[in-house]
Amino acid sequence: MHRITVIGGGFAGLTAAITAAEAGAKVTVHEAHHTLGGRARTADGPYRTNDGPHALYNGGPHWAWLRRRDLIGPLAPIPPLEAARLRLRHKGALRRTPPFAMLKLLRRGVGPAPVDTDFLTWATGIAGEEGARAAAHYCAVALFHHDPGSLSAAFVQERLRRAAKLPPEAHYPRGGWGGVVDRMAALAWNLGVRMETLSRVDTLPTDTPVIVATSLDAARRLLDDPPLTWPSGRTTLVDLAVRTRRGDAFAVSDLDAPGWIERFTAQDRTLAPAGEQLIQGQIPLAPHESKADGTARAEHLLDLGFPGWRERLTWRREAVANGRTGAVDLPGTTWRDRPAVDRGDGVYLAGDQVASPGLLSEVSFNSALTAVSLALGRHELDLKRA
Ligand SMILES: Cc1cc2nc3c(=O)[nH]c(=O)nc-3n(C[C@H](O)[C@H](O)[C@H](O)COP(=O)(O)OP(=O)(O)OC[C@H]3O[C@@H](n4cnc5c(N)ncnc54)[C@H](O)[C@@H]3O)c2cc1C
């Protein structure tokens, strides 16, 4: 029987553990934190915030895999009346519909964008500069970068198409991703996976193949491998609760600068106490900007979409997520150029900044499957089909 050690019990580590155990391996997971889930943890309450993911995109490979194993659980659909309250800030004012020029980029006839050109240059040729900038900023919801227009056109186009798809790809597990993590942990347990929490690994084991399913920063330290880097986003996260008021926006997408604010209780009332709404925003920061700059921009969007929010405030917290929002690809690079999964000597990387395709956590998922297939010496497709 194969033995495999997985370091990190987040979405990548749990995916790897389940996949390896299903293939018959004897798996041990080491997780530094006292609970599993990593960035996919959900706070206990009363305000059930997520550190990282909210949306589970049904166009991704993880959707079918989770569903087949009955791990998604109940979903919180957005009521149509709430969905109609999506607002877009454009030229300083809120509007209901995207600028016409931006929509040109979503037409069927638009071919695949080039890898080597930046998105703003490519998109300006189709939609003009104003439409191109609006589209780039809209994509911030799925790439968390302060200047999406400067990234590879092919990379941003994929995010634009998926973030703007109708009906929407984004689905919300009721109660947050914490429920998905709990179900994954229970399945892993039933498959005989040994899971050790409060178990930070400082030295790689040499007696089994190892899947390092940590953030890329932690993997770089653990493997003592300085070149293990790849660009990601830096973003202010603003979480707040306000007393309910009819007519609040469902979400505000900033088309004048990257930024997104969403009222998650619109689709899931379980996330905050009765009579209150949980709102979470992310405002990407340029290298020279501070958390306070992001907070100020978030407050401006709140003023527009949630009138009177300051007087209705019941809870608030802010943080900066640095390098925690997944890989971004600069012009001339694709996911294939990111740090390879196979590090040699039986060590494999899984996570959202390594060489695997997909959106956000899908990269963690895909790399986990690749890491297991390499560790077990099987053909990758055998596992993906399972
Ligand atoms: C603000 C924000 C919003 C996001 N929104 C979405 C979204 O809507 N949809 C989506 O799909 N994705 C989203 N993401 C991305 C998603 O959160 C991540 O891609 C995914 O959670 C990463 O999972 P992971 O297992 O690769 O890494 P992590 O979740 O970081 O897990 C790594 C684990 O390794 C552990 N660890 C680290 N070092 C060690 C060590 N030495 N020994 C043992 N354990 C160790 C850590 O404690 C952690 O639990 C978002 C991220 C952020 C920050």
Order of helices and strands: EHEEHHEEHHHHEHEEHEEEEHHEEEHH
Bound molecules: flavin-adenine dinucleotide
**In this structure, how is the largest beta sheet organized?**
7 strands, mixed
Strand arrangement in the largest pleated sheet: 5-4-10-11-12-9-13
Count up the domains. Answer: 2
State which percent range the strand residues make up.
15-25%
CATH-level-2 architecture of the largest domain: Alpha-Beta Complex
What radius of gyration results from the CA coordinates?
21 Å
Helical content (DSSP H or I, runs of 4+): 25-40%
Query: pLDDT under 50 segments (min length 5)?
Result: none
| Quaternary organisation of the protein chains | single chain
The tally of strands reads 15
What structural category arises from helix and sheet content? alpha/beta
Q: Enumerate how many helices there are, as a single number.
A: 13
Q: Name the shape in a single word.
A: globular
CATH class of the largest domain: Alpha Beta
CATH topology of the largest domain: Polyamine Oxidase, Chain A, domain 2
For the termini, the CA-CA separation is 20 Å
Q: Give the integer mean of the pLDDT values.
A: 96
